[in-house]
Amino acid sequence: MDINKPTDAYTISQLAEEFSVTLRSIRFYEDQGLLTPMRQGKVRIFSRHDRARLILILRGKRLGFSLQEIQELFQLYDSGAQNLSQIQHMLQTIQLRQQKLKQQQNDINLLMMELNAAERKCYQQLKKFD
């Protein structure tokens, strides 16, 4: 399947292969109401819309959003973002996620500095054996 040329319909297997996720994960997202494929008998038929939502789910998970937060974002988008309190709530959720990511980035930077210092000490110790 050429991911740069989306079709109108996808099977669960096609999406699982394209995005390297399990069939079980996709079924779970469906059970949670994040994906809403059509059915032909027992076969799930996913639309471009479902494919785009799966991309957003996976991206949201990578960014540390919970499935509940992703669902809220979808609801906000689907509703047309008419409710001021909804928009403010989602903005707050996004800002909290940004703060957490910045803290994680700072923690990683500190750990890298410590590892670099330990590495330098090891090299200095190795030079003594030359």
TrEMBL record:
Q: What is this protein called?
A: MerR family transcriptional regulator
Which domain of life does this protein belong to? Answer: Bacteria
Q: Which GO terms describe its molecular function?
A: DNA binding; DNA-binding transcription factor activity
PANTHER family recorded for this chain?
Answer: HTH-TYPE TRANSCRIPTIONAL REGULATOR YFMP, REDOX-CYCLING DRUG-SENSING TRANSCRIPTIONAL ACTIVATOR SOXR
Q: Which SUPFAM superfamilies match?
A: Putative DNA-binding domain
- Write the record's keywords in alphabetical order, separated by commas: DNA-binding
Q: Any idea where the HTH merR-type domain is?
A: 9-76
UniProt organism field: Photobacterium rosenbergii
Q: What is the lineage of its organism?
A: Bacteria, Pseudomonadati, Pseudomonadota, Gammaproteobacteria, Vibrionales
